[in-house]
Backbone:
């Protein structure tokens, strides 16, 4: 039997746990809105070309306005 890709595993989990996934998305919507807003502001400030392979990192979480432009895939789980 072939191993599932990460996308397939995620879709299978989401399908089996609809209520939990929906509750989590509802709970984290404000964070997603703030991350999108911060990215728009960074693109306005630095330009689309500089932001091409960059992320906006919220240093103290999305509730504080302190952000930093960092390279893509900068999270703790990335090697």
Residues:
């Amino acid at each position: 039997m072939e191993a599932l890709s990460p996308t397939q595993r995620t879709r299978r989990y989401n399908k089996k746990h609809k209520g939990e996934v929906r509750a989590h998305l509802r709970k984290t919507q404000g964070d997603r809105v703030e991350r999108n807003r911060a990215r728009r502001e960074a693109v306005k400030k630095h330009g689309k070309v500089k932001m091409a392979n960059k992320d906006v990192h919220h240093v103290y979480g999305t509730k504080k306005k302190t952000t930093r432009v960092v390279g893509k895939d900068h999270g703790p789980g990335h090697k």
Helices lie at 6-16, 18-27, 29-46. The chain has a mean pLDDT of 90. The longest strand covers residues 54-58. The two ends are 28 Å apart (CA to CA).
